[in-house]
Amino acid sequence: MTGVWRVRGAQDAARTDAPAGRTPVPHYTPPMLTISRREGERILIGDDIVVEIVEVSGGSVRLGITAPKEQRIYREELWEQIKQENEAAARADFSTPGASGAPPDQG
User: Fold this and answer.
1) 67 Cβ partners below 8 Å, 6+ apart?
2) Cα distances (Å, whole numbers) of residue 40 to 3, 50, 68, 72, 105
3) Domain positions in the chain
């Protein structure tokens, strides 16, 4: 098995989420271990996670992941959606109408 540590490309380092008119701050991207594998071959992560290359077809790779039930595994786009929903919920105003003690408007 061949492994190569590489730093992600310049386009990753240049990505920013800065609003217009603000100085962008590059995101930190940790080094990535790049490994070549073929169908049926596996990668071990720690003692209890196994990633297997199930199928390679065109530009798509199917992975099989064996991990303990308590280990949460998400596709990146799903995890980003969950984070955004959690952040929106944290910012939401859950105060009850009429919480000031005044009776609700019966108008």
Assistant:
1) 48, 49, 50, 73
2) 18, 12, 21, 23, 67
3) 39-91
